[in-house]
Specification:
alpha/beta, Rossmann fold, 350 residues
Length: 350
Amino acid sequence: MLRLTLQDVIGAGRIRGRMTLAAAAVAGLCAAGFAAAPPATAAAHATPATHATHAAPATPAALPPPASTLQEITGFGPNPTNLRMYLYVPKHLRRHPAIVVALHYCGGSGPAFFNGTEFASLADIYGYLVVYPSVTRTSLDCFDVSTPGALTHFGNSDPVGIVSMVRWTEEHMRADRHRVFATGISSGAMMTNVLLGDYPDVFRAGSAMSGVPFGCFATTDGSLWNSACATGTVIKTPDEWGDIVRAAYPGYDGPRPRMQLWHGTADTILYYPNFGEEVKEWTNVLHARLAYTDHPRPTWTHTVYVNRDGRVEVDAYSVAGEDHNLGFHYPDWAQLAIRFFGLTGDDGDG
């Protein structure tokens, strides 16, 4: 296994090229929530997009492929589930850059997510770092969002390793610990929910594409799959969902990370009712109220929830007729996620 020094990582930002991936079969993994990634059309530093605007996003042009290569980092700290860490360093890295943790789907990997999404290409534009965690378990290559050890700040599962990756990046790349974000598709979206619940002191915001609420996938038998949650039959009140999040870090009374949510109404892997449950959960946790609803594209319903100061806390996109591959049918969702994080230098859509 390659072990990189800090100079190796920084130097990698000057190397052109991309990693290639073998194609993966979709059918056998659909039951595990796998979203098939097409080839990448490929995926800073600013005030977060915290106030609501009504500007409809135009359909952006395809982005060029990443200008640098993906590097594996080893020895990054506590890692009880043997995750692998991949880091993307753009050629033009901003001073004290932000960190975006980009989380893959079931059946995927860090390199696959690098190739299949726009986050690295956007890093070339906006100068932030991208961390790509990668699951190594073979029984079900999804992130653990189910076991008791995954659903607590004081855990012993995947979230611990992911936070170690963040801490390593903050220390060795002099990244801004106040601008750490999480995003993902399917299993990665579920882990986005989990990271924001477990570690509100680490993450500033998240964007979850086709996921489920924090705690919804919980199991007690060691399994990583919860059929009741996947099929959208776990229904709770906003207070009940909020209490589950708050119980993950007892005694924490600091600021909570903002959340952007995406879901297709025709999703038959993680069913659409989970979207409404996520909205209930995070609007409760963040004390957010409905501000407005608009339709930035014909099939999109965009609903914004704000706090009493008008700050956007929950930014929700429901897409009519779309299935579990929504994030690959609309690869430019990454651009709206980065804008929601406040990394694009404008006021944002969120």
